[in-house]
Amino acid sequence: MYKRLHLSEEEHNRFIEDHPNGDLLQLTDWAASKKLTGWYFRRFAIADASSETRGAATLLFKKVPKLNATLCYISRGFVCDYHDHALVEAMLKEAVVIAKEEKAYAIKIDPDIPVSEYEDALENLKVLGFKHRGFHDGMSKHAIQPRQTMMADIDKDDAALLQSFERNNRTKVRSALKKGTEVYKASREDLPTFVDLMKETGERDGFLTRDITYFESMYDHLNPNGHMELFLVRLNPSKVEESVKSDLGKLDKETQKAEKKKDGSKKDNQLRNLQNRKAKLEGQLKEAQELKGEHPDGIILSGALLALSGHKAYYLYGASSNDYRDYLPNHHMQFAMMQYARDKGAKTYDFGGVSVMPEEDSPHFGLWQFKKVWGTEVSEKIGEFDFILRRPLYMAAEVGVPIFQKGKIRLNQLRKEKKDRT
Fold it and tell me: 69-111, pLDDT tens digit by residue?
């Protein structure tokens, strides 16, 4: 019923982009960018009796150190209709053939399909011999890709898009648009600026950051075909000065109007409030004028890598400066990237992994708070599956190595504790 089909790389990627279950991580552009970290890839496609393409997969392979074996990882694949069980079985058969040629000990998949709509697929994959690794939290270290991500529907005009945000976030976005920041599509030459921002963000938030070669590899492979863009946010002192002067003018008119009111506590309170606002604006004006003298061309406050694949957009990496955070550069940037992605044909905007409704003392609470205010909903994916080809090696790689690594970490901790006591 189904047969192997040879597609050009362009045809392969077009199928991935057009398919409802397609994903950025199944593009050959993405796979090629992984070469820097030791992966290589192969691909295949499946057609029905009429030679119509019905499924495709990009298979990543990585050699296991000191063993004559590889891991086969089909990230966010297969790309096919998972309700068609015969098709999924045909996809698996082709994957097994290639995986065995590459001496893989297992095939790992984590399809981009919602569990609520594909309960039959979950059971079918188990029947085919896949081992389901469980319904992990979106920030779990036990999964390669987050099972839970925050998705926003961006298939709407600007007014409706803004209205979809939570009320407080709408206010912040509207304010950010008037504060004098500019969001622009940057170039490869701007990657060092972005990496500097990433380092600053990592130091502030306590996480390790990637080397510039990682981002260069991603950009070089994904940008030429329109699958990735770098955005930066510049604080423009001249625009800030213009905006503040405009607000001061409006405030003077409000003050004149208030002064004509009858004397009383209400009038006094209003005038006091207006004076406080004026003092704050005058401080901002002074700051803008000083900034204009020091940085006449402006200063970069934020940056992000936005990825695109067909009807889906992905917020991959974001970074921001510790300075001038009151100008809300990230809010301006997110809204602008949503607009850009929509205008390029995207219908959804993926904010990435999240721990759903964590406790306030959770290290993931701040991330949840940020991602939930953009008109997002939780996308609960079906999870990660392993198809074991060489069980002894699988047990060694998936069970033995993690135990050894945990033991090594614990041993180092004990050594440090002993050293601290002496």
Answer: 999 999 999 999 999 999 999 999 999 999 999 999 999 999 9
Residue ranges of the alpha helices (H) in 102-190? 119-127, 158-164, 167-178
Strands of 376-380's sheet in order across: 181-185, 228-235, 299-309, 312-320, 348-353, 148-153, 376-380
Q: In this structure, what token pair is assigned to residue 71?
A: 């891991």
The encoded tokens of residue 105 equal 């000990």
From the list 54, 57, 55, the residue with the least C-alpha distance to 41 is 57
Give me the helices (H) in 295-395, please.
329-343, 365-371, 391-395
Smallest Cα–Cα separation from 172: which of 282, 336, 330? 330
Is 57:91 a contact under the CB 8 Å cutoff? yes
Low-confidence residues of the chain: pLDDT under 50: 404
**What pLDDT is recorded for position 414?**
63
Tokens of 212: 């510039």
Question: What does the alpha-carbon distance between residue 378 and residue 350 come to, in Å, rounded to a whole number?
Answer: 10
* DSSP of 17-50: HHSTT--GGGSHHHHHHGGGGTEEEEEEEEE-TT
The 10 Å Cβ neighbour count of residue 288 is: 22
Question: C-alpha distances in angstroms, 307 versus 29, 105, 132, 273, 318?
Answer: 11, 31, 29, 45, 12
What is residue 264's predicted lDDT score, i.e. its pLDDT? 82
Tokens of 259: 């002064």
Query: What phi and psi values does residue 352 have, to the nearest 5 degrees?
Result: 90, -175
Which residues in 135-144 are b (16+ Cβ under 10 Å) and which e?
bebbbbeebe
pLDDT at position 408 is 52
